[in-house]
From TrEMBL:
Limits of the Thioredoxin-like fold domain: 17-181
PANTHER family documented for this protein: ACR183CP, OS09G0542200 PROTEIN
Organism: Rhizobium brockwellii
Superkingdom, taxonomy of origin: Bacteria
UniProt name for this protein: Thioredoxin domain-containing protein
Amino acid sequence: MTTTSWHADPLTWGDGPRSFEAFLEPTCPYSVKTFNKLDDLLSQAGEDKITVKIRLQSQPWHMYSGVLVRCIIAASTLEGGKQTAKKVISAIAAHREEFEFERHAGGPNMDVTPNQIIERLESYSGVKLKEAFAIPDLDREIKWHCKYARQNGIHVSPTFMIDGLVQADMSSGDEVEVWVKKALGN
């Protein structure tokens, strides 16, 4: 049996001493709102002052959450690593409702298979995911995200941590300037 070596690129940007972690579920509308602000956060705070980390927070009421989280992690194993994963997250964000169920339990996606979801995401992102999605032990990385969230008491998305501490007063509705001030302690 041949073992294929793979590496999931951490979903981190910037290299500053302050850590800003966002726990996101890819189809959650509030997580999408948060994701769409992260580049601005990094730009305003400064890549030398902050490290932005995306932690994937799969949630079972978002019915295809597990499939999409696996797609994102699979993308991080491909050429381009975290930038390829970011393209996949961006595609999900831009077409969120096409990866979700109506009121979490109905609608057109009731008749869609996981393979069709992957093909849809490949079409929107331009990233070929099927082979990486099938990496037999890719679940070890998925489990890491899950265990990390659980050990930190994370239940909902988005949830924010700064330097390892949950920030219960932060929200996806906050202006980026508020996040910068809070993250940098200004």
